[in-house]
Amino acid sequence: MLGLSPETDGTIVISSGDQVVFSNNPALENTKVEDLRILKRIMERGVGKKMVHARNRAHLLSNDFGVMDKSKEYYIYAFMDEKSVFTTTISNVLYVLFAYLLLMFILNMLMWRADKAYQKKQIEIQRSYADMLREKNRQLEEALIQAKKAAAAKSSFLSRMSHDMRTPLNGIMGLLKIDEEHFENQELVRENHKKMQVSAKHLLSLINDVLQMSKLEDGNTYLTHECIDLPRFSRKLAATVRERAMENGIEWTYEREKSESFYPYIYGSPVHLRQIFLNIYGNCIKYNKPGGKITTSVSVLGAENGICTYQWKISDTGVGMSREFLEHIFEPFEQEKNDARSVYQGTGLGMTIVKGLLEQMGGRISIDSEKGVGSTFVVTIPFEIAPAPKHSEQAERRVDAANVLHGLHVMVAEDNELNAEIAETMFTDEGAKVTVVHNGKQAVDLFAESPQGTFDVILMDLMMPVMDGLAATRAIREMKRPDAAAIPIIAMTAKAFREDVETCLDAGMNVHLAKPLDMERAKQVICELLMNTEDL
Q: Which one of 200, 220, 240 terminates a domain?
């Protein structure tokens, strides 16, 4: 047992039977096992190589840990004081405890941070939810305000329209009643008819303005891209405006300054361009003074990259407008005075439509006015410069439309008996022979059964029973006879939107005429169509 120290390696005892024969502790040699309490306790408790805890008699306050093994002839005991066994126990426990506390601290810190992050996230979620609720509430409040405004606008609109539509209708119905009572007074009847025409035109203008405003608000106004002969356009516009001005005792002058000759051909939407100026001139005439004056000057501001910019300055000597009203002049139904609708028979939509159309054209309008002095409207519009059109022999021809209907055979497809009667009478008065059918199928059957060349033109309503006008037009165009493709078919309908016009043309119709029937316009259109047919 040399080299094994009892203090560091424990006590080793080897016995033969009950006699200790060897030990690394000399004091235990030649003693008996039964005299050594620790060995006896190890023998009693030890099983195999299992370590046991035994009390040492020599040291009552201390215990030993021991183990026993057995060979054929010897018993081998090994034991050590528990203090030696657990020399590092306290430090290990302290280390473990420190590590445990450190781990718990770290875990608590992580849990604290996670809890703080969770609380922060919850606060952010709550704040975000509160912000969302506030935004939703704000949107709801705005929607409610807008809904109330829309309801008020709708109510105001219906009230205004009720007044504006009933006023001319009341006039027409009243004049009809007067004519019935004084039918023998032909002069009074003729005068009343003129007044009824004025009221009817005002009612039609009101309907057209409302429809135009609806299309502008919905973004459904389609501007065409047509070549415009600006000098010719100006001459025709001037003729119309000059006539209306003279009827009201207004002097009208137009100063060109040779500007229109710089770029006489432009691309634009002539119908809407005409509407812009007629609305402005209409106001200049309507709100002018007796013996007043309207002056127009036009100039070219410049041209660049194929775009020229024209500017019109239209001045009148009318009643003028206040500064306060000018701030709201482009709002729908706005008029300077509350009694303007009764005095001037206006809808308050004209300038709103003007501004909407100009914005779609990329133009602008400014107004300067002084009450009692007059107003000046400055209209600026950019146009794409168009090349000069080729003048063909046909373009140089001038056709007199006054007697164009004389001797023509006209088919009128119209399901409304009153409209059919009006059309038949008006065309008959112009010298035409008129055949009336009441639905599209009758029109198709009559054309198919008639010899070629029987009819010169067909006026086709769109909404008819059995077969509508579009289907009837397609059926006629598909017939295997020469005149089926050549005969002019004119849409005569109350559906007057741009998409309605395109639908008619796509179906094979030549021209679209909106109701009510304008006889002068109808004669001009038929004249041009027949001229084109003769050239084929």
A: 220
Q: How far apart are CA 459 and CA 532, in angstroms?
A: 17
pLDDT per residue over 304-363, tens digit each?
899 999 999 999 998 888 888 888 788 766 555 544 444 445 556 778 888 989 998 999
d(CA 164, CA 377): 26
> Full-prediction pTM beyond 0.85?
no
Classify residue 322: in a domain, yes or no: yes
Select from 377, 371, 283 the least CA-distant residue to 320: 371
One-letter amino acid of 470: L
- Residue whose tokens read 């439509």: 353
**DSSP3 helix / strand / coil % (the chain, rounded to 5):** 50, 20, 25
For residues 277 and 151, membership in a common domain is answered with no
495 and 349, same structural domain?
no
CA 516 to chain centre: 33
Q: What is the DSSP string of 118-179?
A: HHHHHHHHHHHHHHHHHHHHHHHHHHHHHHHHHHHHHHHHHHHHHHHHHHHHHHHHHHHHHH
Instruction: Determine, yes or no, domain membership for 1.
Output: no
3-state secondary structure of 418: helix
